[in-house]
Design goal:
Elements lengths: L7 E4 L6 H10 L1 E6 L3 H18 L6 E4 L14 E4 L5 E4 L10 H5 L2 E5 L6 H9 L1 H11 L4 E8 L9 E4 L13 E7 L10 E3 L11 E3 L4 E3 L1 H4 L5 E3 L6 E5 L4 E3 L10 E7 L8 H7 L20
Bound molecules: 2-oxoglutaric acid.
The site of 2-oxoglutaric acid (AKG) has 10 residues, from β7, β15 and β16.
Length: about 300
């Protein structure tokens, strides 16, 4: 197995073979440049604008939550629009001022979309019925895997904030950590300049790492992740990365003039159960039994 070059391939096969699955187990991720068609990318990208136009400042459909004043953590500051009938919500980037008379501009300044799979048929198709993605997930998680969450980060041109080093399982309340995978799909060219994914190959094998709330977000310290070992995964629109829930990863800030939108979905194996947070916190713990993940009760608020 060639582990000296990134686990980045052109085509996602119809049925991943044992070598690909072995590489996933070894390195904690696989990336493919060509997965969604240009039409699927366009529909998924336009969908973000459609949802912003449907929900933002529409008091019948969504409520507005604005935490800027009490929120010290940079990545939790933007205005949040929350559906009144489902868990769907989206949040504006940092200090960007959302205005009802500038919805196109607002759509280009969204930071986060959450619980969006059922909002549009294109998201449901990609998340749950895309044949090659289903085959890939079946190969790495086993048959009867289940959806766990949908949460996508977008990085607006020029102001897109960094998502610092973290493991996704630092957030997810499940009872075991060997059967959770994320799928990250580029909707724009994702480059180092506009904030593509960076991973620590094989970093999932060390298990849970300590996270803390910084002034930016919940993150692993740089001593814990050795950024020199990181690999940048640049992907064209429609390219996809599947990665282990324990793989340390980050995306840098976008200071470039090009936006970087992405979709993200998480899945769990049939053997993995969702459990109460107290039970999960006892497992995502160090030798002293202390929780190592992202404890929302400790989010920094303004002094
Ligand atoms: O899309 C990004 O910028 C980062 C996504 C990510 O790492 C996450 O949501 O956990």
């Amino acid at each position: 197995m060639d582990t000296n070059t990134p686990a980045l391939y052109d085509v996602l096969p119809e049925q991943p073979d044992a070598d690909l699955v072995a590489r996933y187990r070894e390195e904690g991720y696989l990336a493919f440049r060509q997965v969604l068609t240009p039409e699927e990318v366009k529909a998924a990208s336009d969908g973000i604008n459609q949802l912003v136009h449907k929900y933002a400042f529409n008091d019948a459909l969504s409520e507005r939550i604005y935490k800027a004043k009490e929120q010290k953590m940079q990545n939790g500051r933007g205005m949040l629009f929350k559906s009144r009938t489902s868990d769907f919500h989206f949040q504006v980037e940092g200090d960007y001022e959302a205005r009802p008379d500038r919805l196109d501009e607002l759509a280009d300044n969204i930071r986060k979309f959450q619980s969006y799979t059922q909002e549009l048929p294109i998201y449901d198709f990609i998340a749950n019925r895309h044949p090659r993605l289903r085959a890939l997930l079946g190969a790495v998680l086993g048959p009867d895997y289940q959806p766990y969450s949908s949460m996508a980060l977008c990085k607006p041109a020029g102001i897109g904030a960094a998502k610092p080093w973290h493991q996704d399982l630092a957030y997810f309340a499940v009872n075991r950590f060997d059967g959770v995978a994320g799928v990250w799909i580029a909707l724009d060219p994702a480059t180092v300049a506009n904030g593509c994914m960076h991973v620590i190959p094989g970093g999932h094998r060390t298990g849970p790492r300590p996270h803390y709330w910084s002034k930016v977000d919940c993150e692993i310290t740089t001593e814990e992740v050795a950024p020199a070992a990181a690999v940048a995964i640049e992907l064209p629109p429609g390219g996809l990365m599947v990665f282990d829930g324990l793989l340390p990863h980050e995306t840098p800030a976008n200071r470039s003039p090009l936006r970087r939108r992405a979709l993200q979905f998480h899945y769990r194996s049939a053997a993995t159960q969702v459990v109460p947070r107290e039970e999960y916190q006892k497992k995502f713990a160090g030798p002293d039994g202390l929780f190592l993940g992202c404890d929302y009760s400790k989010v920094a608020t303004k002094e």
